[in-house]
From TrEMBL:
The lineage of its organism: Eukaryota, Viridiplantae, Streptophyta, Embryophyta, Tracheophyta. This is Uncharacterized protein. It comes from the Eukaryota. Residues 1-17 have a biased composition (Polar residues). Keywords: Coiled coil. The keyword Coiled coil applies. Residues 64-105 form a coiled coil. Residues 1-28 are annotated as: Disordered.
Length: 110
């Protein structure tokens, strides 16, 4: 572990933190439990480092923001559609009222 921490870094790179080195060594040398696999459960999660979790969280936040934008767009379209449908319904009612009035006029002239 000490060798990994003391390794020289390339220009512009940050030195490897002790926490990262310890995490890497533990994942390499820790015996992975096989109990779940022995009892027939195949899906065993590997341990992940903090950087992987941060990257995963960032990706989920980005996906969440994209989904929120899609939902907002669809909600707006639904509202526009409802408004258009309400206008069509009012026009239909007006036309129906005009037709009823004309029909009443024709029937009253007999």
């Amino acid at each position: 572990m000490e060798e990994k921490v003391s390794q020289p870094t390339k220009d512009g790179q940050q030195p490897i933190s002790a926490t990262k080195v310890v995490s890497d060594v533990r994942t390499q040398h820790t015996k992975k439990p096989k109990f779940l696999q022995h009892v027939g459960i195949q899906h065993v999660h590997e341990r992940t480092s903090g950087t992987n979790l941060e990257a995963q969280l960032a990706a989920e936040k980005k996906g969440s923001a994209e989904l929120r934008e899609i939902v907002n767009t669809l909600t707006k379209k639904v509202e526009e559609s409802k408004e258009a449908r309400a206008r069509q319904e009012e026009e239909y009612k007006k036309k129906q009222a005009e037709m009823d009035a004309k029909l009443d006029l024709l029937l009253s002239q007999r």
